[in-house]
Amino acid sequence: MADPKTSGAGTSSTTATRPARPKPELLPPWKVLLHNDDVNDMDFVIDTIVELTTLNRHAATERTLEAHKTGVALLLMTHREHAELLSEQFTSKKLTVTIEPEG
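Given the sequence above, the corresponding structure tokens read:
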């Protein structure tokens, strides 16, 4: 005799509806801001950005030049915990990065 679980016998043609899953709440975004300094070499700053973030060398160069020209550049937006981690990592490399909530 065939097993009803595997042969398809005894299955209903109607499907039970499940309550919709609630959408996960997104964490509020935080800015990670790179500040210009006159101590570190630009290549070091660019290499550090590439090392610590997902930015490629071209994007890291653009942000480094922006910070050099204007005093500060937005490196990236992320959630608070990641922003705090990046701030600590940049500080350990003797670079000045601040974080602030978006908006």
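The mean pLDDT is 88. Try to locate this feature in the token string yourself.
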